[in-house]
Design a protein that fits this description.
Length: about 190
């Protein structure tokens, strides 16, 4: 029976260490999320400052429209980071409450075995949450990399830039029609 007692002590020790490592991983993911959020807020503030510099009276030039789209994109990424990774939710604790553990109607070994199963369940819960949060953090960091694309869409979507692009493209299309290979090639006859 002494070996069984030692095995139970060892299993409890390993289970608590496992749970604490998952809880530490959760804390590290939260810290990385806060750092990422800080960088994205700074980038969003830069877009807004850029917007202020490129506002022409009542009209926005194409660069300002790009900054608007980039700021909106960054805001969406920040909001998703806060909702998905920084939400306040129940987190598993390494140990149970004393009043729950004190069960005089059971033997100490019985209570310890049940608590070992509870530690495993809390460890699994912490592991699943860490996996979910880290997946969201990674995807949202990738989404932040698309900010230049949002800027480009905003730049191209401006009324002034779109009409100017269309006006510039029209003469090019007309001159290209005059240079059609069938018309431009000298006749062999």
């Amino acid at each position: 029976m002494a070996d069984n007692e030692k095995m139970l002590e060892w299993a409890e020790s390993m289970a608590l260490e496992n749970l604490r490592s998952h809880l530490n991983a959760l804390a590290a993911i939260k810290q990385e999320t806060v750092i990422t959020l800080s960088v994205l807020f700074a980038a969003m503030a830069g877009c807004i400052a850029y917007l202020g510099q490129h506002t022409n009276g009542k009209h926005l030039d194409p660069v300002a429209w790009g900054a608007v789209f980039a700021a909106i994109w960054l805001f969406a990424v920040c909001a998703a980071l806060i909702i998905q990774c920084l939400r306040v939710a129940d987190a598993p604790t390494p140990t149970n409450n004393g009043s729950v553990l004190y069960q005089p109607q059971f033997t100490l070994e019985q209570v310890r075995k049940v608590e070992l199963a509870n530690i495993d369940a809390r460890s699994t819960q912490a592991q699943q949450r860490a996996a979910r949060d880290s997946k969201w953090l990674n995807w949202l960091r990738m989404a932040a990399l698309l900010t230049p694309l949002a800027f480009g869409i905003g730049f191209e979507a401006t009324p002034q830039h779109s009409s100017a692009s269309a006006a510039a493209a029209a003469p090019q299309a007309q001159s290209a029609a005059h240079l059609h290979p069938a018309q431009a090639a000298p006749s062999a006859r």
